[in-house]
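Following up on my earlier thread - several people asked me to post the actual chain instead of describing it. Fair enough. Here it is, all 308 residues.
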Amino acid sequence: MNIRAVALALLAPALDGVYLRFLRPADGPAFDFSAPRGEPSLCPPDSVSWRVCKNPVTLLIGGVAAVVMELAEPRVRAGVWGHTTFRSAPVQRLRRTGLATMVTVYGARSRAEAMIAGIARRHAAVRGITPEGLAYDATDPELLDWVHATAAIGFLDAWHAHVRPLAPAERDGYVAEGRTAGALYGATWAPACEADWHALLERMLPRLGPSPVIGEFLRILAAAPLLPLPLRPLQRLLLRAAVERVPPAVRQRAGLSDAAPLGRAQRRAVDALARAADALVLPSSPPVQACRRLGLPDGWLYAAGRDL
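Reply from S.P.:
Thanks for posting it. Predicted structure:
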């Protein structure tokens, strides 16, 4: 049995169990991606977003990279660290954040819009003064632009690096696909292409800086049971991969320029895990459930040639 076959055999039952717990959380309502029957999502099933966001390994890598970028911005950092449960309940918080991503991409449009409206209402109460003396407001379009863009680029770049390189047109298409959801969240100037992302990054760089919170966030994740037991030994490796996916200029501003890069063997291990996860047809996963809602076969997103 080759490494890929072993990875698939280990991943499938473990990750399907994760999705079952993810969609039926003990601390919140269940979400059914298979209903209402026939209702489209914010993005169509042949979108780049559907391909990229189906991979739980690169979502973890990209999601952590995105949060690091967000925590480097002092106003976002104060809102996230002071008004969420990242510190006290990191697994539950990441699950809720992950569920929001899945609903945004794969959920029926009416349900995605309702969920996003609820998040926007909760954001309205998040405001204050940072330790640096800066006023922050979670409804500030500039901050929402940054949060939306970092999440989108985090997922995209992780998939591009560890599954398959995407052509420039695919990368631009992915960024553009997120503008509808971004506008619903309140991101008024969400990037329309990858060049827009780089322009936004250049504008934001002078405002980014180091903080003990970033190191605390990474230490909390390293100790938390994020992955199913068979994959737990790889957790720290995936977190290192996430830090590596943070743009070098942001790593430098955030005080992470000394973070050790992945070695060749470590990179091969992350690539193998990500590519194996990308081929898994998990019955409980949002992508498969969304395919069922639209009358597509379970394996439609995973069919030979779908990613070519």
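The chain has a mean pLDDT of 89. That should answer part of your original question.
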